Amino acid sequence: MHVPDGFFNAPVSLVAGAVAATGIGVCLRRARRELDDRTAPMAGLVAAFIFAVQMLNFPVAAGTSGHLLGGALAAVLVGPYTAVLCVAVVLIVQAFFFADGGITALGVNITLMAIVTTVVGWVIFRLIVRAAPRGRAVVAVAAFVGAALSVPASALAFTALFWLGGTAPIDVTSVAVAMGGVHVLIGLGEGAITALTVSSVLAVRPDLVYGARGLTAPLRLRTADGDVREVTPEAEPAPAARGARPFLVGGALVAVLLAGVVSFYASGSPDGLERVAGDKGFNANEQEHALGGSPFADYGVSGVENERLAVGVAGVAGVAVTIVAGGAIFYAVRRRGQDRERAKA
Fold it and tell me: Which of 52, 181, 242, 288 lies 20 to 30 angstroms, CA to CA, from 298?
């Protein structure tokens, strides 16, 4: 649901940019509390994984596709404030390196795809896990519901913004129905991807799932004497960054595989926003991307004629740029938080 340049007038674009900048500023401050020895190494990987999976458009209806937005997934894995930063890093890399999502619409995209999805997904997730008995199954179900509902919420927020400051007249009711309807279907895909990913991490390293801290059921270990001892995985003094290195390397390789190989087989149909914009005719003012001539524009590679190779190289390059940029930001935020803690001590 990347909004291109030309969809919104200057006032709405500026306001959305201010909201995005304020949100990122708040998250940079609050993420210091989330980026501990477990979440800091994970955050760069989560951003790279979201970038990779966003390249995998999946069909949702005749001639329409969808892709992961990732706000709810990131919130469950690394915390809500860090999640906004993860998705924002992805959107910035996509806009400036791959001409995906407009430059003037970057504030709109961050507001809709990073802030709205994270807030909605995290709030719903927390409401469910607080109301239900603790356990890994509950965490997975809550992640599914939160992610599934975050997508139509973002689509309806887009409709409201377009009604306020779109560059083409629309029948807001019909657009809301169309956007909400198709993004409900996309949301089901988002929920499935989120639940599958969260469940996979829970099965291997439950201590690395931020949203499951204190919620996963303890392991029951029987000693040689026949006694039963309960152990909460995330409470174990297991080495955080060092012990997680195999997992992080494996996750990075999965992201490379998805972006470099599997992405070639993604659906080529327009996504939900593109389909509704074409059907309702409010894409008439869409502008060419200012960086449309960049080397990796449209997830290709200038000078590489082989499409499969071009998509693969672009995907791997995107994963590398995202994980490096995201990792640098998250470690800088973590270090600043540590410095402030030492100063107070």
Answer: 181
